[in-house]
Amino acid sequence: MRGRVFAALSGVALLAGHASHADESSWAAWSASPRPLELGALDPLERAALAACGPGDVGLHDTARAILAQKLRGLPLPELDAIEAAQREAGEPHPWPRVWSARALDRDATLAALGTWLGASSDGRRRRCGVAAGPPGDGTRTLVVVAVDALADLAPLPTHARVGQWLTVEAHLRAPARGGRVMVMDAGAAPRTVPSWFDGTTLRARFAPDHSGEMAV
Questions:
Q1: Do 154 and 171 contact (CB within 8 A), yes or no?
Q2: Higher-confidence residue: 163 or 19?
């Protein structure tokens, strides 16, 4: 089958100018992938879920914890835009996250259900995951799993920058591609394409924010 495939490989939220102290404290300093997760930070249920899902990522783990906190307050799973906003705040750049959640009444049954969902949602070759479970001790824990397909990896890019500060975007592709574009978008202005170059495996661009405010790269 021949045709064109257009894929968003990553997205980064950027605060330019003078952000408030609250903004600075709630956001990761950098957007980057991969950021491998230390398994020692997980409990046995989380480690088992991660073993079923795939390589763990710090940003996805933080995203799963944010979603878990909502579930424990009795709220439903958030919509896609809210999940992606949590990813950006955690410094995790990949688009199109998939989220699964269950009450872990029986560990083996829960992991079997997770395996069924994973098998239906992607082939796992480029999958990255984050897991969170809680609260411990009562035998009825809630488990949240966040998964993405990592079509590219992003070199560290700051989430805060000064107006006029030069920033380098460097995305290492993990899927076949002929090229790519880097775009900067912010509210109230038309998206602009940033000059970029592609060497067959890595897409690079440099730009400087020309005004303060929040924007997406």
A1: yes
A2: 163
